[in-house]
Amino acid sequence: MDSTFITPGGLDQPLLARTAAGSLKLAIAESAKAGIQASVDCVRALVARHEPVYGINTGFGKLAQTRIADDQLVQLQKNLVLSHSAGIGAPMSAPVVRLMLLLKAASPAHGVSGVRLEVIEALLALLAHDVLPVVPEKGSVGASGDLAPLSHLAGVLIGVGEAFVNGRRVSALDALPHAGLKPLTLGPKEGLALLNGTQASTALAIHAALRLQRVFDAALAVGAMTVDAAKGSDTPFDDRIHAVRGQKGQRAVAARYRDWLAGSALRASHIDCEKVQDPYCLRCQPQVMGACLDQMAHAWSILLTEANGVSDNPLVFADAMEALSGGNFHAEPVAFAADNLALAIAEIGALSERRTAMLMDPVLSNLPAFLVENGGLNSGFMIAQVTSAALASENKSLAHPASVDSLPTSANQEDHVSMATYAARRLHQMLDNTAGIVGIEWLAAAQALDFHRPLRSSPAIEALHARLRAQVPRLVEDRLMAPDIAAATALVEEGATL
User: Fold this and answer.
1) Which of 100, 158, 294, 379 is the right S-S partner for 203, CB 3.0 to 4.6 Å?
2) Taking the mean position of all CA atoms in its chain, how far away is CA 322?
3) What Rg do the C-alpha atoms of the chain give, in angstroms?
4) Structural domain boundaries of the chain?
5) Which listed residue (54, 257, 280, 422) is catalytic?
6) 5 forms bridges with which residues in the sheet?
7) Residue-wise pLDDT tens digits, 324-369
8) For residue 112, what are the CA distances in angstroms to 32, 122, 155, 251, 320?
9) Strands annotated E in 150-225
10) Where in the sequence is 2,3-didehydroalanine (Ser) found (predicted)?
11) Predicted TM-score of the model (pTM)
12) End-to-end Cα separation, the chain, in angstroms
């Protein structure tokens, strides 16, 4: 497997997607190595001065005023990793941990963290061999960095904690040989640099953004199917409407609806009907989904900047032989980005649920009640829509901004925190919900199309219909619905593009 070389600031969305998807062999570009070594030399020079420098020869947080003797500096870094490995909860998913490994390696490659190339390469070795540290999902407030999650990540490098190897949970000492590694001894500043930073919250948010793109694409496609299945109009997607408003996402989304609906014989069959306007859940899709698309684009710009930046503390500047204490570990940008993504996820689901409810109602859809023949004997999609409503309602609670909350930590030394890690983590629960909502709509819209046969929708929508029908047959009479919903939800997670 050939290596992909990474340079400081060179991470992009395709590389992040590849990293999340599976093991990837990465290496630090030769051009970055001199800067990395200079930062290490700077730390050594600062130690030799015997002046107090935070995190190098002092305690941490509220204990920053405590001086540490030179012969205890190695133990200081080990103790830091051990004491800060205080997370709880289920392990973070494999895609998130892969992203954490990449982001944690990319940050010290900038040459201002004082971390040896050997340590950076060890992180990349874990990634290349898919040796994934067990990182509990709870325990970070998003400042002073994602301390607990990153401690569990770093712990594996020194032979403590656990890791997943080929899906098995084993001790760090048993896992390291699978990556060709032995336990490392961390030098001055290295433990702190590994623990300090926003890489856990950023990895969680990036993985959510990657998932959201697929769910968003599927929601657009299924929304277009519902328009045709409900004999809705394609006039609301006319570019002239969106051009005069000027919202970039809205105009782009309207074009995608036009593409999905192009060539529909079903649409042509009622082009001269007396109905004047469709419900908002059909007619206002470009306005709502376009606004979501704009939020997604903005969040990506923030997350890519964060992924390509340096967020540990203190930072060492070799050219001036200085270590500067600051607050780049404060993950407020990530928290805001995650909160905005939460709004988009909730609205995608809310609009989809309304379209499903509209299809259930024979007054609005002119289709059999609950999309089933012999209603009464059969309940059809009645409770599937209830499930959709439950998921949409749950998302409303989860969409409450996490970034407005803060509890002081470290004896009030760290007195304002971002809650970015929770802000990003809860996105995945919301995505699970929204994928389920869109999956239920897909089932309902496909069922509604079946009632219009022999009329056909557009070639693109018919292909979407066939993709679902390859796994879920038409509902002729009541059957167990949960497997159908699970199958459709899995398809939504894969996305749907023309």
Assistant:
1) 100
2) 36
3) 26
4) 4-197, 205-494
5) 54
6) 27
7) 999 999 999 999 999 999 999 999 999 999 999 999 999 999 999 9
8) 11, 18, 22, 43, 11
9) 162-165, 168-171
10) 144
11) 0.96
12) 32
